[in-house]
């Protein structure tokens, strides 16, 4: 294989100039396979589970009237320890999509980074972006590529949300797609979903709080409330940390504004309101 | 019978240059110029889908004239190269200067080693943190590279357009003024006289009505990816003189994937 050119004093090899693929991952596989996340797992054996690499925890997603949102807590754990308190696990991947990650943090971050480059790369080369199903299929392929590592205990499971700009009903154009470690791809038609260690509690909370006709503010409130419930019962999920000013991260996607990470001012206000309401319930009980 | 003909290297290079230059001169023109808010690309392009101007990276844009298949492969190669660099290191480590060097090496290798040189001329532009940091590189078919301080004119009638732009261009123009200056420069006028070089026969089609323009900008103030195409109504608003060309609005809102892509005209 040709050496990959790493500085500026070279001519582009003919593979760069060909029109065989519009995919960045395919291009990497041909030209620089050592940079692909999946290649590293080859010599890993089956003992990855003993590594205690940091794990990301709970992600929730829900649709609302005119869009979709995805929210995650900020904690990463390593065994029984907190590895990071303020990690972002929800990423804007292009103008109308976002991905939340649960599982082995290092691999998941690399996967999201590659996926983001992949979407932009396709868009630049082809002049149009992938369809929403194209995007989620591509992500499924990348999760499947990580299967060897998943067998070794380093599983990564993303949760994909996107706004379908070609949908006939713009109010219902927000979509949620979940994946399993084998690359299985499941459209979540219920309108909400959660992944990660606290997902059981988050999903139960969502079941009661979810309102398909809610506006964006209502949906953000429900998502943060369900994350609070997850943190309440799952040690690996971090609740709003008011002392350190660490609050859940939320990305909303609407037709008008595209995918936007909510500023901390907004998420902190909602999180503090949720905490205050729960405190009020305690007062009423005593 | 078939004896290999001897040609001196000088003559070979001269003939290749001539071939490339003729090919480029037949095409329509592209103007790339700096304005206050970034870099503006204006191309004469009858096709709404086969672009001459394109995004390469966050802050880098690309414009080309000549043979479509050839500059298209250069464009793909450039995008692959910068995406690989940015993935390997960081998005900030990708620069137009490095990319222009790579293109120069590529073009010069093709020019000397292949039977037929690429009949293309390309411009790599980068928008910086302020107006002084904006960069324009012009690359010709043989791999020569020039760093232009104000504007780049490539393609067919470069002499006439160059002369006109030299009179009308000024530093720190607003976007609307810059688009107008560029559009005016394309319009063949009486004062430019015999300024057309080479393809004088093709200019008859461009007489009278202005040809369709492909317009894009690298906007300094835009967060993230700076490249934005200006199409449809937003473009018509910038070109008030072209009211009769209202039929060009069928190119409509073009999917460059940015939600606020076509709405605003000024940045």
Automatic annotation (TrEMBL), chain A:
<dbReference type="Pfam" id="PF00227">
    <property type="entry name" value="Proteasome"/>
</dbReference>
<keyword id="KW-0865">Zymogen</keyword>
<feature type="active site" description="Nucleophile">
    <location>
        <position position="57"/>
    </location>
</feature>
<comment type="similarity">
    <text>Belongs to the peptidase T1B family.</text>
</comment>
<protein>
    <recommendedName>
        <fullName>Proteasome subunit beta</fullName>
        <ecNumber>3.4.25.1</ecNumber>
    </recommendedName>
</protein>
<keyword id="KW-0888">Threonine protease</keyword>
<keyword id="KW-0647">Proteasome</keyword>
<keyword id="KW-0963">Cytoplasm</keyword>
<comment type="function">
    <text>Component of the proteasome core, a large protease complex with broad specificity involved in protein degradation.</text>
</comment>
<keyword id="KW-0068">Autocatalytic cleavage</keyword>
<keyword id="KW-0378">Hydrolase</keyword>
<dbReference type="InterPro" id="IPR029055">
    <property type="entry name" value="Ntn_hydrolases_N"/>
</dbReference>
<keyword id="KW-0645">Protease</keyword>
<dbReference type="InterPro" id="IPR001353">
    <property type="entry name" value="Proteasome_sua/b"/>
</dbReference>
<comment type="subunit">
    <text>The 20S proteasome core is composed of 14 alpha and 14 beta subunits that assemble into four stacked heptameric rings, resulting in a barrel-shaped structure. The two inner rings, each composed of seven catalytic beta subunits, are sandwiched by two outer rings, each composed of seven alpha subunits. The catalytic chamber with the active sites is on the inside of the barrel. Has a gated structure, the ends of the cylinder being occluded by the N-termini of the alpha-subunits. Is capped by the proteasome-associated ATPase, ARC.</text>
</comment>
<feature type="propeptide" description="Removed in mature form; by autocatalysis">
    <location>
        <begin position="1"/>
        <end position="56"/>
    </location>
</feature>
<comment type="pathway">
    <text>Protein degradation; proteasomal Pup-dependent pathway.</text>
</comment>
<dbReference type="InterPro" id="IPR023333">
    <property type="entry name" value="Proteasome_suB-type"/>
</dbReference>
<dbReference type="GO" id="GO:0000502">
    <property type="term" value="C:proteasome complex"/>
</dbReference>
<dbReference type="InterPro" id="IPR022483">
    <property type="entry name" value="PSB_actinobac"/>
</dbReference>
């Amino acid at each position: 294989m040709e050496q990959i050119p790493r500085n500026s004093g070279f001519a582009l090899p003919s593979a760069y100039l060909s029109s065989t693929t519009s995919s960045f991952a395919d291009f990497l596989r041909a030209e620089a396979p050592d940079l692909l996340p999946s290649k590293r797992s080859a010599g890993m054996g089956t003992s990855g589970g003993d590594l205690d690499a940091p794990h990301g925890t709970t992600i929730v997603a829900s649709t609302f009237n005119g869009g979709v949102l995805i929210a995650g807590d900020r904690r990463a754990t390593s065994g029984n320890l907190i590895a990071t308190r303020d990690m972002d696990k929800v990423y804007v991947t292009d103008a109308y999509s976002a991905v939340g990650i649960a599982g082995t943090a290092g691999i998941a971050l690399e996967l999201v980074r590659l996926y983001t480059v992949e979407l932009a790369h396709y868009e630049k080369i082809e002049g149009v972006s992938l369809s929403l199903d194209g995007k989620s299929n591509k992500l499924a392929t990348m999760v499947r590529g990580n299967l060897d590592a998943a067998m070794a205990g380093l599983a990564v499971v993303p949760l994909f949300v996107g706004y379908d700009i070609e949908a006939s009903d713009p109010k219902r154009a927000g979509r949620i797609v979940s994946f399993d470690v084998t690359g299985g791809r499941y459209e979540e038609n219920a309108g909400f979903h959660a992944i990660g260690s606290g997902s059981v509690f988050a999903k139960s909370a969502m079941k009661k709080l979810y309102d398909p006709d809610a506006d964006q503010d209502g949906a953000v409130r429900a998502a943060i409330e369900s994350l609070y419930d997850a943190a309440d019962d799952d040690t690996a999920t971090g609740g709003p940390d008011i002392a350190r000013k660490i609050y859940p991260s939320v990305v909303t996607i609407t037709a008008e504004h595209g995918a936007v990470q909510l500023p901390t001012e907004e998420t902190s206000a909602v999180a503090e309101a949720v905490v205050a309401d729960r405190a009020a319930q305690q007062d009423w009980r005593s | 019978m078939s004896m290999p003909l001897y040609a001196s290297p000088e003559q070979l290079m001269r003939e290749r240059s001539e071939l490339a230059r003729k090919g480029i001169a037949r095409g329509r023109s592209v103007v790339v110029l700096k304005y206050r808010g970034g870099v503006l690309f204006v191309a004469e392009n009858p096709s709404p889908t086969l672009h001459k101007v394109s995004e390469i990276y966050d802050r880098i844009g690309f414009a080309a004239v000549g043979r479509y298949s050839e500059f298209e492969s250069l464009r793909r190669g450039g995008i692959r190269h910068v995406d690989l660099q940015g993935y390997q290191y960081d998005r900030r480590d990708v620069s137009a200067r490095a990319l222009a060097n790579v293109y120069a090496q590529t073009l010069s290798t093709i020019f000397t080693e292949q039977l037929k040189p690429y009949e293309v001329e390309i411009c790599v532009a980068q928008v910086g943190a302020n107006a002084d940091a904006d960069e324009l590189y012009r690359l010709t078919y043989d791999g020569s590279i020039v760093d232009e301080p104000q504007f780049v004119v490539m393609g067919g009638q470069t002499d006439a357009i160059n002369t006109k732009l030299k009179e009308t261009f000024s530093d720190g123009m607003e976007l609307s003024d810059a688009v107008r200056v560029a559009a005016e420069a394309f319009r063949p006028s009486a004062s430019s006289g015999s300024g057309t070089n080479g393809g004088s026969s093709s200019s008859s089609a461009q007489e009278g009505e202005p040809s369709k323009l492909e317009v894009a900008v690298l906007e300094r103030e835009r967060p993230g990816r700076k490249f934005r195409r200006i199409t449809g109504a937003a473009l018509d608003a910038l070109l008030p003189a072209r009211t009769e060309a209202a039929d060009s609005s069928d190119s409509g809102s073009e999917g460059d994937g940015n939600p606020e892509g076509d709405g605003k005209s000024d940045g």
